[in-house]
Design a protein that fits this description.
The chain is mostly helical and about 140 residues long. Helix content is about 80%, strand content about 0%. The chain has four helices and no strands.
Length: about 140
Amino acid sequence: MTLTYKRSIIFGLALSMLFTSFSLALAEEDTTESATTTISAGLDSAAEGSYSDTASLTEFIGNLIQVLLTATGILFLVLTVYAGVLYMTAAGDENKIKKAKGMIVSALIGLIIIIGAYALTSYVISALSTASTATTEASTT
C-alpha cells in the first residue's frame, strides 16, 4: 500500500465518522429540557449533590484555582515523563542528557513556585476572611 492510499483511507474513515455523528445528533428527538438543565442535572449527579449553579464568587474562584492547580499538575507530569523518556533514550548523547536534566529541574522549580503561590494565596485569603468575619461580628453586637 502506498502512503497516499493509506492517507485517503484514514481521511475517508474520519469523514464518515464525522457525518455519522452529525446525523445521529440531528436524528434525536427534540426534548422539552434545555441543555443547561441537562448539564446541571448531570453535574449534580456526578458531584453527588454538591454541585450548585448559584455558586458565590469565592466558591467560583476556589474552583478555578483548583482546576488551574490540577492542570499544572498534569503539565508537570507530562513534562517529567517526556524528560524521563528523553533521558532514557539519550544513548550517551550528552546534549540530550543535559536537555532532559534541565527539563526535569525546570519542571520541579515551576511546581515549587506554583505550590508556594497557592500556599501564600490560601494563607492571605484565610487571614482576610477571618479578619472580615471578626469585624462583621463585632459590628453586629
